[in-house]
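Q: Please design a sequence for this.
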């Protein structure tokens, strides 16, 4: 790859920078010769694997919900866990009180059709 002599100009505003990058390629300002190898020997993973036993029907329902949302079921389980932990700590309940005194999981009931009542 040939060496690039282009320097990224200083911008007076984000609008000017946005205009610039709309008409220029970042590759014109990239020098692959300046890449240096990095090592992070003390970097620790922020995730911890756990094993949890759940009833088969609960797992099946979780997988169904995840499939409808087009996300992996493990990710959906993490979202649900995080939401419940926040609720238990009170952060969700405080934020919902500010927005109209509603409970976090309260939903409006669907209107009942006159035919369905019979």
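A: Design:
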């Amino acid at each position: 790859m040939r060496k690039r002599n282009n320097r990224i100009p200083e911008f007076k505003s984000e609008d000017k920078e946005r205009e610039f990058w709309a008409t220029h390629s970042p590759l014109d300002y990239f020098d692959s010769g300046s890449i240096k190898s990095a090592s992070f020997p003390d970097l620790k993973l922020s995730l911890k694997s756990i094993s949890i036993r759940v009833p088969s029907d609960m797992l099946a329902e979780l997988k169904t919900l995840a499939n409808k949302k087009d996300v992996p079921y493990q990710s959906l389980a993490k979202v649900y866990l995080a939401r419940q932990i926040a609720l238990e700590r009170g952060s969700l309940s405080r934020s919902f009180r500010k927005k109209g005194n509603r409970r976090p999981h309260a939903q409006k009931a669907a209107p009942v059709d006159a035919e369905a009542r019979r």
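Q: Thanks. Anything notable?
A: Residues 56-98 form one domain. Residues 106-118 have pLDDT under 50 and may be disordered.
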